[in-house]
Structures are given as structure tokens and as C-alpha cells.
Design brief:
- 2 copies of one chain form a homodimer.
- By secondary structure, chain A is an alpha+beta fold.
- Chain A contains 18 helices and 14 strands.
- The longest helix of chain A is centred in the middle third of the chain and has 37 residues.
- The N and C termini of chain A lie far apart (53 Å).
- Chains A and B meet through helix 1, helix 8, strand 13, helix 9 and helix 10 of A and helix 1, helix 8, strand 13, helix 9 and helix 10 of B.
- Chains A, B: Homotetramer.
- Chains A, B: Its cofactor is FAD.
Chain lengths: 602, 602
Amino acid sequence: MAQLIADRRDIDFVLFEQMKADELAKTDKFAEFNKKTIDLIVNEARNLAIKEILPTNADGDKGCVFENNKVTVPESFHRPYELLCEGEWVAMQEDPEVGGQGMPAMVAQAAGEYFVGANCAFMMYPGLSHGAGHLVEVFGTDKQKELYLKNMYTGKWGGTMLLTEPEAGSDVGALTTTAKPNGDGTYSISGTKIFISGGEHDLTENIIHPVLARIEGAPAGTAGISLFAVPKIWVNDDGSLGEDNDVVCDRIEEKMGIHGSCTCVLTLGGKGKCKGTLLGEENKGMRAMFQMMNEARLGVGLQGFSMASCAYMYALDYTRQRKQGKNLLEFANPDAQSVTIINHPDVRRMLMTMKAYIDGMRSFLYFVGNCFDKHKTAGNEEEAEKYMNLIEVLIPVIKAYCTDRAFDVCSLAVQSYGGYGYTKEYPVEQLLRDTKITCIYEGTNGIQAMDLLGRKLGMKGGKPFMELMGVMMQTVAEAKEAGLEDLAAKVEAAVNGAGEIAMLMGKTAMSEKVLTAFAHACPFQDVLGDTIMGWMHLWRATIATNKVEKAKSKDKPFYEGLIKTANFYINSFLPITEGKRNSIKAMESAAVDMTEDAFAGK
Amino acid sequence: MAQLIADRRDIDFVLFEQMKADELAKTDKFAEFNKKTIDLIVNEARNLAIKEILPTNADGDKGCVFENNKVTVPESFHRPYELLCEGEWVAMQEDPEVGGQGMPAMVAQAAGEYFVGANCAFMMYPGLSHGAGHLVEVFGTDKQKELYLKNMYTGKWGGTMLLTEPEAGSDVGALTTTAKPNGDGTYSISGTKIFISGGEHDLTENIIHPVLARIEGAPAGTAGISLFAVPKIWVNDDGSLGEDNDVVCDRIEEKMGIHGSCTCVLTLGGKGKCKGTLLGEENKGMRAMFQMMNEARLGVGLQGFSMASCAYMYALDYTRQRKQGKNLLEFANPDAQSVTIINHPDVRRMLMTMKAYIDGMRSFLYFVGNCFDKHKTAGNEEEAEKYMNLIEVLIPVIKAYCTDRAFDVCSLAVQSYGGYGYTKEYPVEQLLRDTKITCIYEGTNGIQAMDLLGRKLGMKGGKPFMELMGVMMQTVAEAKEAGLEDLAAKVEAAVNGAGEIAMLMGKTAMSEKVLTAFAHACPFQDVLGDTIMGWMHLWRATIATNKVEKAKSKDKPFYEGLIKTANFYINSFLPITEGKRNSIKAMESAAVDMTEDAFAGK
């Protein structure tokens, strides 16, 4: 079985031909990252992923072991974790002076696509070290940075994020964990946190837990939440490890998937000995969370996508090798031989559907990654704002749409294997199970839709949304110039249709029909995602059309494939998007009008 | 947590108000099955399912044990299996004289909905005893029936179906298992069969394996396949058990779900000692399979649906109890209390989507069950043919559409639980894993679509399909009479649209664009399923509208719920179906035109 994880040619296409990653090298910040360097980075990431990480995925599926309040990760995880740390892959995008590699986001995404596609559960550990480290970098005092940061960015120590409590999930504001000032700058922390990925494990000697808690006397709700840095083992002022800090893992969850990533219930201060230091300002914990949210949600979108991309590559490989049944055109010929199942039209439909989503999502993800890069390197505030606007409006869509479609793609991958796909002998059923969590955590996809409709759509008087429309229309214009009038007109109609629906949604959300509007928030998010896929395919086809004639022979089928995939998506899927728009236009209120009793008989 | 499995009020609605099950009692065959008797049967099935079967589902998920070629099922399965046998639930629909209960199919479906929803993996064992028994009943000699039948229909012995081989899955005709006449009426059987549910287990003292094999010298392909009855332990002429019959279980599959149902690799005749007797005529094995196929596929549709129905009931119960977040209308009120999550519009959308599919699928399944009943009790051949025509055209749709939507419903159920849904602490993730197999086995859903387009659509010059259109239009007319002109007009447009697409599909399948047509077979199947859902909701709403005003107070919300659900489905989902029709009309050929190379870069 080929172990490819991702389509390297397409990654290069998106990086260099679509997003022009090498142009970033013209900026001071990314001067080192010319095409050659980027190639080298992606090569190294791919090799590490294929040789060292991918082989641990099935082993990881057997799960972590919980015993005596300690968690043991799958044995096979230790070696690739060391290699990731050695290779400085934990904090790819952060500044070298604090332990990072200073890469553009897009390049980190290319590497991440390989790593996460190889073993998503495993990559949670370094991912969380990095994420928690980022909180320390942005909100920490010099002392906190001195004590924690480098150890986190280099993966020497782990990290987590302690938000959720049994009665405070989507509603973080309901949390009850308390922090009591000790008078020496530390706080005594007390509470129970659940669903803590990497909350306790044996990969690292220490773990730094960013913890959301309420300082005694703070206001109720989100306005009274502060963020604390709580080490598993106390870190003395000289950086040496001190006493156990009374953060106790009570159990780990048994889950549907990502078994290699332990999900912990943690009790803080059960013995009254848990201490932390304030990270950022008092009562500004939620604000800190929000600042990290965009990158975290982009990361979850990438997780779902990367697993789906891996599932597609497996399905493609399998359907190219598995022989079963005759070619449909020879159905009546008794002497016809069995053919590989990629020859069957319905298998084609499944593969093409997977490819259409994978290609479209890759472009979408790298586009947003590129917005981060361009935001960082913008020449002026106006330009910086434009990219941040695009990020703000696209983040909920990228998190929700990519994970929903990733689940669909993995399901199609299982289906294309037939009965074998349902067995653990093949890797796709695990990818299907693992992917589902990405639709749930880091804000369920329903929460994303509320963010899109309730915050992002009307943000700054609708400017970010209009800017998105403008960027899409620019591609439409370029496609027309390249001679793709027909495809361009269809995408144009989809973009205009999405704009029209956005107006309707915004208006309805501000009317007395607000509940009905929010009952359509997910369908609206879906329509926007579909439209973005159409945009991306049009963009891809435009580039491919401009290049295919003069392309090298090995590139010709690739470009032709991009054009065909664009035709497939735009002609076969955008009509369904139009149907979804019409569904929203009907603005049916039955779901919110139902009495609770009416959902089932008595 | 409420353990309801299914909405009993809705089952009664479909049985008595929509399908008029009690009218069957006017026929000789079903004279005993008046409303009171049916009530009693469904009550008993529900009690048994809730009290004895449902509690074994999570235990079953831990899986079967394979050791020394023997399979041990989960210990908890033994008691409910005995109770099922004692209660004569194994062969509900078969004649009492051969060990059955002679129930109408629809009533057996109501009971089955509870049993399968409670534990699908467990129900595979009695289900397979019944299915294999049915082959013996229909194709067996008097002697075979004397030796096997009653023991199978009473569940004393198990049954299986040995079709698949490593190189013969969807393409059964490629099988290589051989049968060599021994001259004494028996055949020596030799070969390896895979994916055999219940192929070896400790629930019963014997197992009868119907085996597809090729008699030496038989033609290649499906024309040379015969069916044999091969006992696990030889059955002597006097009915006593003889020697072990050399059917050896080599291993069981590790799967994504239905862990309680063992999936075996069986080697027949590895020691040269496996014997069987011909079941039916030489080389007519495939024909025998086809005769059983309709009921088997209806059964798989019911499996998917039943698990989804159970998932919906769980999700409804959970969202009614779980408090999280404020009511959206009080978002700005700092003193607002948390509400149960069923109050959130997006949760409403999920529940309503689940309910719309569950209600629609229940009506669809019972309608087809009722066609079987009416076919059996038809007064004349013409009437009998009409019902068989409906069965033929609807079977692929019911198998594929119901299982695809069941998977979607289970996924929504997980989503509506949030993070908890992903844990094994709650039952929905298991239902999601278990349900996926129903999209694959008994002919993948892609195979169903080929059956629909390639065989059923053009069957008898298109008469069965036209009859289906006619039946749906009758409901449209009745709805208009009941004052539901608006909803009726929308369903009418969907039915006409489906008819138009059917014409296009049929025409294209007979043109040089045959491959492109078959690449749209699944979308076509999906459109037909959507249309049927619309039909069923219109039918339901018509009945509810006629009754709601004079209904008892406890029934009012139920009927109002049906009307609202019909509005939801018809207004929110049928526009998307229109989009799917437009997608098919575009008849994009990119998927089949792609070169293999173009699916990924080099």
C-alpha cells in the first residue's frame, strides 16, 4: 500500500502556483524562505511523517493507558516525538529567538498536512505544547517567558488548554474553577476540568497548563474569567523543577477515535496545593482565548482536512489496485476480465468528489494561512486590516466546513474500499473515527455558524464579508480573461447568490425572526463554504488553463485533472448550492416553532 | 437517560393511521392480526428490547473472542437470545406450521425496529438463522426441510450466508469455491469464504451454512454457481448431530463497529471432509440469491433506520435535559439562566433534521413492508404484480437511501451531544460506528444505484417506475383535498422533477454516455429517496391535518409536530433536491473522462 499522506504535486501547486509562496521571500520577515528552502522543509516534513510518524498511527489507535493517576502514551510515540523536537518542528511559525523556526504559516501548513495526516492524535501533543507556549509568549511576563517558553516551543515540556468543565462546555462563561491570591504573586487554583487533551502523559517531564479560572469576587460570566499558567510540576525561580503542583488526572475518556491522544479529567488543588501565576490581565482570560482562537480554529480545519487528504490518497491507491468486476462497457462479454475498481463510474464519482473537496480545501486553508502571512508582512495598516478582515470572516467557515467535508470524504473513502474499508486491516475506518472530533472540539460547527452569523457577518458594517466577495470576484474576472467564461459565470452566480443570502440572513437575524435566522446559520455557513470551493476551483482551473499547453509531459495530466475537477465541482455541485440557497430563502420556521412535546409522541 | 429506542406513538401512526395495518385482518392470511393483537405484539417486542436486549449493546461493543478456531460471543447475549427463541421472534413472518408466527411484514418491522435499535449486532444472529432458514424453506427438499428448517426458524440452530471470497465481493460471479459430487447425493465442498457474519459462535449447538459454490465443470461466472446447505456439524438422517463437518473459522475481523457480531473467515474442506447438499437446482444459486435479495435489502434498510431512530431518541432526550448557555433571545441579559440545549436554534435544526428523516424513513419502510403483505394477500395477479413492481423499484432506494441517511442521522446525534457524544460514556458514537456497515453490506449503496438505474428503472418498459409515480401523485391529490395545496404543489413538482430525471437517466444510460449516466446513478437514487421523503411527509401531514382539530389533547402536539415536520422537510429540503436534479441534468462527464494519472500529481 502506498503511504503518501498527501498529494505533493498539489501542495506545490497551491504553494507556488496559486498562492505564490516564494513572493513572501521578498519581505524582510520571510527573506530566508525562497522556493528552494520551502522545498527542503516540505521534503523533510514529508520524510519524517512517512517514515517515523505514519507507522505509529495504528498503534496509537490502541490508546493510552491510565493507571494510578498517570497516563502512558503508546510506546511508539516516543521516538517521533523526540525527532519532532530535534527537528524544531514544534513551533514552526514562531520567532527563532524564542525557539521557533520563523516559517510562513503556509509553509507550516504544508508540513503540518503531512504530520497530522500521518497521525493526528500524536500531533496533538506537540500542537498543544505550541499553542500553550503561544499564550505564554503573547500574554506572559518576562519571568514567565524565561521559565516556560523555550521549553514549550522546543517540545521539552508539554502544554494544554484547560477551559471546559462539566457544566461549562460551549458556555465557557459558566465555569467555576477558582483562583485565590496568595499574596506572593501566585494564586491557589481549585476546580475540575474535563476534556483536557494531553492533560497528563509521559512524553515530557513537565506540562504547563493554561487554566481559565475565576478570581474570588470576580464578576459572573465571561467578564470575570482570568487566565493562569499552572505547571504540572512547579518551576522554581531558577528554572529547576520543584514540587508536584497538585494537578491530578482522575481518569481519561474512552472515545470514538484519536485514542492516541489522551483526554483527561483533571482536578486542580484537590489537596489545596495547586498554584498558578496570572497570564495576562485579571478578568481578561476570555479576551486572551479569543486572540488565540483564529489560529486554533484554522489548525482544527487543517486537522480534518489532513486526515481526509490521507484518506483520499489511500482510497485512490486502493481503487487503482483492487480488481473486481468487469468494465461496465463489457458487461455482456463473458470473457471480459476483472478490472481495477477505479474503472467503475460510481467509484470515479466517489474519487472525484473526494478530490474536489481535498483540492478545494487545500487551496482554502493555504489561502487563509497566506492571509496570516500577509497580515504579518503588510506594508501598511490598511493592507494589514484587509487580511485580518478576511481571516475573521473565513475562520468559522474554514473550521466548520473543512471538518464537515473531511468527515464526508473519510466516509467516502471507507465506502470506496467496500467491506474492507470497515475493517481495521485498512486505515480508512480509523481516519473516519478520528476525523469526527474535529467537527466538535474548538467550538462545535454549530458554534462556528453562530460566530459567522452573529459576529463576523455584520462586523465593521459588513466590510470583511464584502472584501471576501471582492476577492472572489477578482478570480472570476481572471478566469474570464483566461477563456473560462462558462465556469466563471457559474461561480459568479454562486458568489452573487451567497451575497444575497448573506443580506437576507443578516436582516432576518436582526428582526423578530432571529431564532429562525439562527436555525439557518449552519446551512448559511455551508453555502458560503460551497461557494468558496467553487471560487478555489475556478482559480485553480484558470492557472491550469494558462499553463497546460506548455506544460512538461509529466505535468499535463495534473493540470488537465485540475480543469476537469473544476468542471466537476462547478457543474455538479454548485447547482446543489443553489438549491441550498433556495432552501434558506424559504426561511422555514418550523424547527423553532415546534413545541418540545411535538418532537416525539407520548 | 430514557431508553426508548423508538417513538411508539409514531409507530402506531404509521401502522394504523397511515398504512392501515388493521385492514390486513380482513384477509384470510392475516385474520388473526387485528389492532389489539398487533398492539400486544409491539408491546411485547418493546419490552423485550428495552429490558433484555438494549442493556447488552454496550457490552456487545467489547466484541467477540476468537480462540482455537472458536468464537465466543459476549456473555450477555445468551439470555436475550434464549428469550427471543422462546418468544418465537426468530421467524416472525413465516408460517406457523414451519415454526414462524405468520405476522404481516409491517408488524414484524415494528418489532424489528425495537430489537435492532436495541442491539443491531446481536440481532444479526437470529436474523441470519431466519434468512438461511428461508432459503431452506423456499429451495430445500422435503428432507432438508425436515432436518433443518424448524431448528433454524426457532433459533435452536444458527444460519449464515457464504457468498463472499477474497477475490469475489461485489462480483460474486468470480467465486472459486468448488463442489464435487460424492455420488451419494452429497457434495464435497472446498474453498475459503470471508466476511461471514455469525460464521462460528457459541450461541447455538449447530449452524447451517448456505454456501455458493461452483460444481466442477460448471460454466464460468454467475451462470455456474450453485447453492448448498453445509452444516457446521453434520446432521444425520434421523436428525441427530453427527461429525464435525470441517468448516473451520480461521479468524474474525477487527472492525469499526458491530463488534458483537463476529465476522468470520471460514475455510471449508481444509481437511477434505466438508460435505453439503444441493439447495435448489444446479447452477441456479444466483437466482436463489436474487429471490431472497428484496427481503434482505429491506432488512438492511431497517437496520440502518432502527439504529438512527434510536440515536434520535437519545439525542432528543439528552438535549431536553442538558443545560448549557442562555436562550439566544436573552443573550445580553447577564442574569439569564442556562437553558436546556433543545432551546438553541441550531440544536433545533439538528433535531428537526433527524426527525424529518426518521419519520420519513419509517413511513417508507413500512410502506414497502405493506407492499409485501399486500402482494401476499392480493385478490388477483394484476394487483399482486402491482405490489411486486413497487417492491422491485423501491428496494435499492430503501436499502441505500435509508442507510445513508441513517449514518447522517447518527452523525447529527453525536454532534448534538457535543464532546460527550464522542465518548463511550454515551451511546451515540457506537450507533454511528455500527450504522456505517449498513451502507456497505448486502450490496454497497453504489451497487444499489446500479441496480436501480440498470435493472429497475427500465424493467417492464418502465412500468414499475410509472406505478410509483402514480402512487405518489395520489397522495398529492389527497393532500390538495385536505387543504394542503401549497405543500402538495411542492411535492408534485418534486415528483414530476424526479420523473423527468428518470427519463434523462434512462436515455443517457442507453446512449454512448453510459458511463457518465452510471456516474450519476447514486445522485439519481438520492433524488428519488428525497422525493419519497417528501411524499411521505405530505401523506403524514394530510392525515394529521384531517385529525388534529378533533384530536385528544395528548395527541394534538403529535399531529402538530407531523405538520410542522412536513413543512420543514418540504420547504427546507426539497429545494435542495431540486438543486440535485439540476446537478444531474448538467450530466457532467469529468469524473469518467479523467485519466487515472490525473487523480493525483506525480
